[in-house]
Design goal:
20% strand; 36% helix; alpha/beta; seven-stranded antiparallel sheet; globular; 35 helices
Length: 1070
Amino acid sequence: MPKRTDIHKILIIGSGPIIISQACEFDYSGAQAVKALKEEGYEVVLINSNPATIMTDPELADATYIEPITPEMVVKVIEQERPDALLPTLGGQTALNTAIKVAETGALEKYGVEMLAAKIEVIHKAEGRDEFREAMRAINLKVPESAIVHTLSEAIEAADQIGFPIIVRPSFTLGGTGGGVAYNRQELEEFCKQGLDLSMTSEIMLDRSLLGWKEYEFEVMRDSKDNVVIICSIENVDAMGVHTGDSITVAPAQTLTDREYQEMRDAAIAIIREIGVETGGSNVQFAVNPEDGELMIIEMNPRVSRSSALASKATGFPIAKIAAKLAVGYTLDEITNDITRETYASFEPTIDYCVVKIPRWTFEKFPDAEDFLTTSMKSVGETMAIGRTFKEAFQKGMRSLEIGRFGFGGDGRELLEHLDLEDLESGLVTPSSKRVTHLYEALRRGIEKEKIAQLTKIDPWFLHNLQQIVETEQLIRQKGFSGLDSVFLQHCKQQGFSDQQLGYLTGTTEEDVRSLRQDSGVVPVYKLVDTCGAEFESYTPYCYSTYEQENEAFRSDRQKVIILGGGPNRIGQGIEFDYCCVHASFALREIGVESIMVNSNPETVSTDYDTSDKLYFEPLTREDVLNIIDQEQPDGVIVQFGGQTPLNLAVPLEEAGVKIIGTPPDAIDRAEDRERFQKFLKKLNLRQPENDTVFTQEEAIEVAKRIGYPVVIRPSYVLGGRAMRIAYNEEAIKEFMKSIGGTVQEHPILIDQFLKDATEVDVDAICDGRATVIGGIMEHIEEAGIHSGDSACVLPPHSLSAEIIEEIEEASRAMAIELGVIGLMNVQFAVKDETLYVLEVNPRASRTVPFVSKATGVPLAKLATKIMMGMSLADLGLTKEVVITHWAVKEAVFPFDRFEGVDTLLGPEMKSTGEVMGIDDNLGLAIGKALLAAGSNLPEKGNVFVSVRDTDKQSIVPVAAELKKMGYTIFATDGTNGFLLENDIDSHRINKISQGRPHILDMVRNREINWIINTSMGRRTTEDSYQIRRAAIDLHIPYTTTTNGAAAFVSAMKAFGEEQIGVKPVQKFA
């Protein structure tokens, strides 16, 4: 049936900040849906708190509310916009749960808003554990023996009947949050307390353990005429017990017989019908007993899921776009396939290649966390690779991870030859981020596949393929460089071996192998992802490389530019850089230049088949990028938008004769090389904190003494503050050197004077080589020493003097011109006692570009691209700074709740996974909105616990005074309590944990404390402070670990108490 004409305005709820288990897949699906609905002539209203996404671009929806995704805020948007319908299935679990709560308020009924794609009862049937279990039994499908419980005593009783180990699954949560595998009663109690707390309905399901069973997912779509299609089958390499988001997955499923596949397909179709998803996509998860093939249904998501992005990219079938069109009345047989332009969406995708997804973890950011994978997801991103075989796709996936690996093995990295057999077997049994390296070592040692399968529960088919890679590696070693004839080289490349691996294994270099390959005619061809196994012509150039005969990629004669993306999401390099790459594509299209995107991240908008003129889904390595350059012969390559990944390729590409567009790579080196940077600042008469470069522990101790403690110490050439520390004494220096691998280093170690109590400032600027315009000046709320990606910041600055702001602008302009910046530049300054210091300069796009662009209404990345292509700021009509009268606040979002035992103290190494934005005409409200969006509750009354280090005592006084004035009761430990009383602030003394009971932790656990202010010296200091901060995380009590953060929190609480909270679309702020 044709689209509905009785609805005109549709409200979409986004997914909010990037968190573990809900990342930029939902930006991709949400952006796709907005485009699809606008294409059909609907007016689209969006609410989402994440400024880093394409979804919240002012050009995308008709009205974009960058507001906290809470039921109250959604109701305010509904009151203001009066939409006809609400689409809740594209913003992950956040959108679904919020939509349910909004419906429960009666607001949808009151304002006549229809829920599209999934009715409330359907959501309850799929997400409510009890309802789902009954629904499966009604259609004769098996679910694991289970019990639904709402209290701890019910859980213990049920566990006695089901038996251990037992799987704990809270209802209405995402990414296995609050769940896990309990092997005994004590673990069950811990999981249940957490799960009951996190579940929106205080309900958890206890499942019989299916540990060791094989796990599969099916992406399914259904329309209003009951047409159902299977988009993709996905198989987990890891067995049940590891969250699917943490498992290596393969599409299509590799180890099912045809009969098993048909049985699963029939079950998926029966499930979507029984649950009653009328229109749109769903995800069904299955478990299969490897012993006898018994099939069990695990769960079903009645929405576009995390795997939908992977399935869309794997097949070329745009699930979110089709889901949006089905929601407004179309049927699958009415929607044409964009790629073939002949077939319809009712035509199930067929793929003639193999896709492998490998998760990207960042356990190195949380050294206190156990590297152990279970049913609660821990990975922060993923990479995807396409090959003609599993072997090729898997090795390409390994080198796409950007962890210094170039394949499954044979690259000289992460060697485990020293491990004894017991430790090796332990590494195989225990699922972890390092298990792949243990698998490689076991196969290299010749351990029987049957033994490995028994230890890992990984299907022998996968182990057989991995063994073939190891056997080929041994053959390469035997043959040596002289034995690499064209036939054997072709064979190696078909198994996914990189030039780097071949060079390492033959004792030569990557460049030697590349030259040999080219001389032998062993070069990749590019195949198209076309949804139909090459049955129909493909109109969208979405390519992957392989080593076969026919090349399906077509080189045009237009002016063309390659954009290098950022690779997999991780802490320190996230979706903000993808946003910049997408804007580069948009800009090139606007000026008639062909855009070619290279990236390996399946979650993002940049890898959507219609974002750029051409898409190469490939690893971002020197070899893979040079191969694409050979194929396309571009007029230049853009490296300054994708974060550190493409920047690391800038010099190797330039040395290979590739034209780098925009700021020359030498300017990047001038800003990053310590000596050259010092000379550069001296030339401009700019100050920087005293610093030096060292290579040994002895030198480091000597330099730190000379500069004076505390000092900031870090390795050079890192992003996201990787391994950076503030050292307060010699012991901390020794500890740092040990943590990075020894007392003597090959690369320089940087040591800087630490400017205590300084205010940090971030500046984004745009320069055409002649003129510079400041895009935005952001004042950090947290003091210097906390990574800029983790600090909340305010735009425009709220406490800097006019003189300092002018000095910042002049210094930024001088640096941009001196460096020869063509495009974007980010500068970090520190202000201490009205003196300005330059901390660092990055002549590239920074992670704050999307935030600044949305706060000011100036699309910096798009304009920078046009400048890089030769236009001037004057040509673009941007000749002076944009002055705004409202306030924009960026707040970071952290994954501490996912990592048990990790301290929440912030420092110079970045730990946040995402960010939110608060925007308002009132600064206090903007701060409050940012805090709400980041998941903090602003207590309206109650008890506040204050315990701060000596150096913070003076600055906490005005905060405490304001709290008293607002009617809060203050509890404090000895030192802080005494100081507050001396300053005439009424406070109640409470015992530290070490001083006997009742103590502060008892009050926290009894939920008698509504907010915690706790600052500590250096890294994890006293056990007392750590336990309090950790309890705050586990009990969802708002906490603040800096005095500046506390002052901002108080200003928000005050504004929320005194002002009327309103909502306004971002389009009206610009």
